[in-house]
Amino acid sequence: MRYRLGVDVGGTFTDVLLLEETSGSTYRAKTPSTPADQSVGVLNGVGKVCADAGIDPGEIQQVLHGTTVATNAILQGRGAKVGLVTTEGFRQVLQIARSFVPGGLAGWIIWPKPEPLAALENTVEVVGRIAADGSEVRPLDEDQCRTALRSLKGAGVEAVTVSLINSYANAEHEEQVGRWVAEELPDVPVSLSSHVLPEMREYERTLTTVANSYVQPEVSRYVRNLDSSLHDKGISAPLSILRSDGGLVQADKAAEDPVSLLLSGPAGGVTGAVWFAQQAGYSDFLTFDMGGTSTDVALVLDGKPRIGRETKVGDLSVRATSVDVRTVGAGGGSIAHVPELTKALRVGPQSAGADPGPAAYGNGGTEPTVTDANVVLGYLPSELAGGEVALDVDAARTAVATIADAMGLESPEAAASGIVDIVNENMFGALRLVSVQQGFDPRDFALVSFGGAGPLHANALGRLTGSWPVIIPPSPGVLCAYGDATTCLRAESARTMVRAFSDLTGEELRTVIADLADAAAAQLTEEGVARDAQTATYQVDLRYHGQGFEIPVDLAPEALGGGGDLLETLGATFDAEHKRLFSFLLPNEREVINLRVTVSGPRPQVAFTELEQGSEDPSAALLRESQVWMDGGPTSAGIYDRTTLQAGNVVRGPAIVTEMDSTTLVLSGHAATVDPSGCLVIRPL
């Protein structure tokens, strides 16, 4: 037997899934996260899931991990002290930025500008210059450079970024400075912009590389610590980390390029959603991942998640390939409050997190949260995570009653219903960002919901968006871990090539793309993936001459075969995407800006388990009837055990379907049909 272990660390819970490849059997564990040291929560989950499966940890062949360590380092401001090396005259590159202020016309008055990740006093200039065409304008001054580096050493920097002008065109100067850094600051990690992001635009390239340096020591420590702890537990299997684009990278490579991990956690959920939605027969869908702290949404078209070139974490936006995930501060732990000034109910973005958590958890929390509201409404069972967390109904009612009192409502149930309605609207707004705002009608898509809290709100979100059916995969609370366990190794190679179509031929473009594909393939070959098992995808950033931005378009592999006009194909694809996004075209000449090739290894051959076929009658899985608050008043709802449901069973609302890691709510006027893949497929009656 071959076992793969998927691990996903969230803000509230750590999810662990053990997958046996041949049979498709799974074993799940959900344990409280340990923010002080995430590896503790991981090891607790590993021990629990191995005990449930009755195997020795040494039998695990692969460990696949989605982590939020890099994300949390950014959000909590606890990254490394970064020293930045720039070309002479570019010392203020991070301070000048793009002169963009978010918000309305008066945004500049109230916007607190975030501090750069590399302070100005820790930024030094070096003499030397590369031109935009890659030629050397002025050689490096070694003595001046070493003196500048010694000043960084004296400042006690913990990581160094080297970002020199036009290094994307010629990396020789950066690589030389990198060697001098290794000599002058031998124990300090160094990141070169020509390696992290070999693309034009000095600010974005510098910021992305500085972010890489900022989180590198923290990620390296965590990866080493987790790897060592797993070995101590008897697990000698290689550790791989999930990248923001949904692919895997070996742990040592991840530690070198941690900026590619900023959306590691959410990417795992999207990958897992694709895995199950395809089994249920759906390829176009929105994903809705609601956890304890936040909600992540994304759009999948033709079975492929939309990939973006910007990764945003808090106030930081870096150029890194990632699944186009949008996040809102709406989760089970989101705190409801009524501002004294407006007396209008608000939910989030503040969260009770894992400690103390919602009042219902009984860990000392007193503020009303979305979880407490669901408890008051009767939507949650008395225990969560397979008995790991017992719920205190009285504490939840007491907390929610403070909202009812503040708003003059007659009952905690009325306040709880308002809390749920508002958090649903917040998440509906996020779903519009990845659909309507991108030119897609959400009514053309299904909605795949997961996360510990997602299935509770999925039916309501389907009603708001008009996205049917709503699909609840098996084990929705640990789906991110399932995605981690069922994805593949991936590598990327990119290059800037600013050329107008009139100055370029299709053959030149094919040659450059082939070189990039070879470079990315070589990375996977080093990681043990045979060349004939690799597949490549191609992307080109294009713009009209004179535009200040470019649009990434996918290039089909068959277009590279030489049988057609490559530039004509690219141009037509770009025009169609520009028309979809902005509803107009320009007569200007098109320009190629960046080329990108991603090479992936094979996905694991994991067997699917099909449920036993049954009738429409789900009564064999009925546990009991319970009182819930729905449609403005009390009503009776059936509570069903998901583990005993059979394919073809139809659960009509109002109903609650319980399982170890999540709870699904079926609203009145809707029904959930059990698919042979194990998915619950909810539609209006």
TrEMBL record:
<dbReference type="InterPro" id="IPR045079">
    <property type="entry name" value="Oxoprolinase-like"/>
</dbReference>
<dbReference type="InterPro" id="IPR043129">
    <property type="entry name" value="ATPase_NBD"/>
</dbReference>
<dbReference type="InterPro" id="IPR008040">
    <property type="entry name" value="Hydant_A_N"/>
</dbReference>
<protein>
    <submittedName>
        <fullName>N-methylhydantoinase A</fullName>
    </submittedName>
</protein>
<feature type="domain" description="Hydantoinase A/oxoprolinase">
    <location>
        <begin position="205"/>
        <end position="491"/>
    </location>
</feature>
<dbReference type="Pfam" id="PF05378">
    <property type="entry name" value="Hydant_A_N"/>
</dbReference>
<dbReference type="Pfam" id="PF19278">
    <property type="entry name" value="Hydant_A_C"/>
</dbReference>
<feature type="domain" description="Hydantoinase/oxoprolinase N-terminal">
    <location>
        <begin position="4"/>
        <end position="184"/>
    </location>
</feature>
<dbReference type="InterPro" id="IPR049517">
    <property type="entry name" value="ACX-like_C"/>
</dbReference>
<feature type="domain" description="Acetophenone carboxylase-like C-terminal">
    <location>
        <begin position="506"/>
        <end position="675"/>
    </location>
</feature>
<dbReference type="Pfam" id="PF01968">
    <property type="entry name" value="Hydantoinase_A"/>
</dbReference>
<dbReference type="InterPro" id="IPR002821">
    <property type="entry name" value="Hydantoinase_A"/>
</dbReference>
